[in-house]
Amino acid sequence: MFFLNHGYRVIAHDRRGHGRSSQPGEGHDMDHYADDLAALTAHLDLNNTIHVGHSTGGGEVVHYIARHGQSRVSKAAIISAVPPLMVKTEANPGGLPKAVFDGFQAQLAANRAQFYYDVPAGPFYGYNRPGAKPSQGVIWNWWRQGMMGGAKAHYDGIVAFSQTDFTEDLKKITVPVFVMHGDDDQIVPYADSAPLSAKLLKNGTLKTYKGFPHGMPTTEAETINADLLAFLKA
């Protein structure tokens, strides 16, 4: 609504297996995510677009631009995003152990409804921090969106967002990219994400938000929207 009111056309697509999109059993990987986005932009004949991606969506934006080129893209913003690589490897010693993501899959498979309440009620929005004031509406809306999607899509998607290496993708991008990240992100830890992405990008700008959580576009919407608008207009 904020950007509509500032005269922008806003398109928010549901990734395959999510929201109101269909729930195929296959294709829940970053290549398909990027190709689906390319199909959408071609179908709508979008040009001079600004792609904004949060969390896994930030990886999707980066992979789409690197894989399909920049001819339709003017700028991009990645918020609390997963690139360059979340999982710990020899080349990425600051990443999270694979066991963390295996645990996510196990929790999702065992009791998805409970898992999808615990995540927003706790670390996603920083509601587990001392003095936090949780919004039950925000928590249940996250749960609602999660439960609309397909279990198989979400199970496979954990591998897609955690084990895809976006290093080479980031190096290919030359359009301006605004890298926005909170330093109290408990889902995508700050030190192994945003600063590294900004360094790999040819035209990246990093902005660090002190104390902001992973879900800062919701809990800190006034700040994030204002900064995004300034970037769009620059």
Structure overview:
A four-stranded parallel β-sheet has the order 1-2-3-4, sandwiched between helices. Helix 1 (30-43) packs across helix 2 (56-68), helix 3 (98-121) packs across helix 4 (136-148) and helix 3 crosses helix 5. It has helices at residues 30-43, 56-68, 98-121, 136-148, 151-163, 167-172, 194-200, 216-219, 221-233, and strands spanning 49-54, 73-79, 177-182, 204-209. The protein is globular. The chain is α/β, with parallel strands linked by helices and 234 residues long. The chain is built from nine helices and four strands; from the N terminus they run αβαβααααβαβαα. It has one domain (4-233): Alpha/Beta hydrolase fold, catalytic domain (Rossmann fold).
For the record, the CATH class is Alpha Beta
Rounded to the nearest angstrom, the radius of gyration is 17 Å
Biggest sheet, open or closed, and with what strands and sense? 4 strands, parallel
Return the CATH topology: Rossmann fold
Summarize this structure as a short list of keywords or feature phrases.
234 residues, alpha/beta, four-stranded parallel β-sheet, 4 strands, 46% helix
Helices and strands in order:
Layout: H1 30-43, E1 49-54, H2 56-68, E2 73-79, H3 98-121, H4 136-148, H5 151-163, H6 167-172, E3 177-182, H7 194-200, E4 204-209, H8 216-219, H9 221-233
Parallel strand pairs: 1-2, 2-3, 3-4
Helix pairs in contact: 1-2, 3-4, 3-5
